[in-house]
Specification:
Structural class: alpha+beta
Largest sheet: 5 strands, antiparallel
Order of helices and strands: HEEEEEHHHHHHH
Number of strands: 5
Shape: elongated
Strand order of the largest sheet: 1-2-3-4-5
Number of domains: 2
Number of helices: 8
Strand content: 5-15%
Length: 241
């Protein structure tokens, strides 16, 4: 809760979090301070700040340490240094999220964008509110099916496809565990990544997991009307029937 933060600290960091907030998530912390993690599932990056009343300083833990070192760091600093270090940490997340790289997979990225365009919700609260309970339960059940169906693919086929299967399982487990902590569109983003990797693995596996998604009412998860076949997902639903 925000009352864990001294007013002077909250005033200093609020503009940074408004600017870069899409790249991180808040973790509840009992101590006086705050705890943020990278919004990307599976990332080790975090920023933790704890107020030390005895000497009016702040204990900081963060990863990465800096732009040239991805290890953890620990430090005791004054208020202005908290703000500077938080800004640097958020700018690092921004760089990773927005800068094209040789290490990116352009095909996978395109698949993610296609699926996200279809799954993304236009609700006014889609970037702030979670899915309702019924949708969270539906998604949990669906992800359990994905985890079950990807299991045999982890040990058959070429190494690159085995690795994709392992990554699909990992991301499905993370989303299943975090579904109650994510906004509607964060769920859509993570599901898009799972489907993109399934598509990269091959159409047979993608069709397997999409059939399970469509065999229950799609509206239980999405608020978009796709029955008319207007969208890509509408066409896919027709093809799988």
């Amino acid at each position: 809760m925000k009352k864990n933060l001294p007013v002077v600290l909250l005033q200093k960091i609020e503009p940074l979090l408004k600017k870069y907030g899409q790249y991180c998530k808040r973790v509840n912390a009992d101590e006086i301070g705050f705890y943020l993690i990278d919004a990307e599932a599976g990332s080790p990056f975090f920023f933790r700040c704890q107020y030390q009343a005895k000497d009016d300083t702040y204990y900081l833990e963060r990863q990465p340490r800096s732009v040239d070192n991805n290890l953890k760091s620990f430090d005791y600093v004054k208020l202005d240094a908290v703000v500077l270090q938080l800004e640097e940490w958020l700018q690092i997340l921004d760089f990773y999220a927005t800068t094209p790289s040789f290490f990116d997979d352009p095909i996978l990225k395109r698949y993610e964008e296609e699926f996200y365009d279809e799954l993304r919700l236009d609700d006014p609260d889609a970037d702030q509110a979670p899915l309702d309970l019924a949708k969270q339960l539906y998604l949990e059940k669906y992800l359990e099916t994905v985890i079950e169906k990807v299991e045999p693919y982890k040990t058959i086929g070429p190494e690159d496809k085995k690795q994709l299967a392992i990554e699909i399982e990992k991301e499905a487990l993370i989303l299943k565990d975090k579904v109650t902590e994510l906004t509607k569109n964060q769920v859509a983003e993570q599901l898009s990544k799972i489907w993109a990797k399934a598509r990269k693995h091959g159409l047979p596996f993608l069709k397997e997991i999409l059939r399970d998604f469509f065999k229950d009412e799609i509206k239980s998860l999405l608020n978009k009307g796709i029955e008319g076949g207007v969208s890509m997902l509408g066409h896919i639903a027709d093809l799988l029937n």
